[in-house]
Design a protein that fits this description.
This protein has 184 residues and is an alpha/beta fold. It is 52% helix and 19% strand. The protein is built from 8 helices and 6 strands. The strands form 2 sheets. Strands 1-2-3 form a 3-stranded parallel β-sheet, sandwiched between helices. It has a 3-stranded parallel β-sheet with strand order 4-5-6, with helices on both faces. Helix 1 packs across helix 7 (140-152) and helix 7 crosses helix 8. The protein is globular and about 45 Å long. The N and C termini lie far apart (51 Å).
């Protein structure tokens, strides 16, 4: 089984269709695998709801969806902690390209691989250690290949989990040290 997560605003622009496209290809490629999906989010408007509910209609039987609305910080971390791979396939635009999503830090701190849209703001953190992949969010084949590598290569998966934790711990220590220096 593979546990994946979609969190945040549920809309095509924020990558929901890209996420569903990847799931559909994975379900077809691995018909004997169960895909457990946590959907933690909300619709921004009625158009998003109608469009995204359509994406969810007719999912194969090996994909199950667990839905949750907005959660408090601690509840969110508890809810996402059992995900195997963290993903974010938001469309690349001027706005998203320059924004660093805070949830990226939660993903890294939980010590799981991350597959993320190749955003300028995110590259800095990916260049500091190998804990996942940056990708074109619409390149379904590439994303499916990356996830397939994790499924088929346990050592790669473990290495990226370990690297994510190391990066997180180094950043926490560095930030604490910088805060302490500012107080002296």
């Amino acid at each position: 089984r593979l546990r994946l997560l979609y969190s945040g605003r549920i809309s095509k622009k924020k990558g929901f269709k890209n996420f569903i496209d990847v799931l559909l290809k994975l379900a077809k490629l691995f018909p004997g695998m169960i895909f457990r999906i946590k959907l933690i989010g909300w619709y921004g408007n009625k158009k998003d709801e109608v469009e995204c509910e359509d994406y969810l209609s007719g999912l194969p039987s090996n994909i199950s969806i667990e839905r949750t609305g907005r959660l408090g910080f601690r509840e969110y971390l508890n809810a996402i902690n059992d995900s195997d791979i963290f993903t974010d396939f938001r469309e690349i635009s001027l706005e998203t390209n320059l924004c660093l999503p805070i949830k990226l830090f939660y993903f890294i701190a939980l010590g799981r691989p991350v597959i993320h849209s190749d955003l300028v703001a995110v590259r800095k953190y990916f260049s500091s250690g190998n804990f996942g992949f940056l990708t074109d969010p619409g390149d379904t084949e590439n994303i499916v290949n990356i996830i397939s590598r994790y499924i088929n290569d346990n050592e790669l998966y473990k290495e990226h989990c370990t690297n994510a934790r190391i990066i997180s711990e180094e950043n926490i220590l560095k930030n604490k040290f910088q805060i302490m220096q500012g107080r002296c």
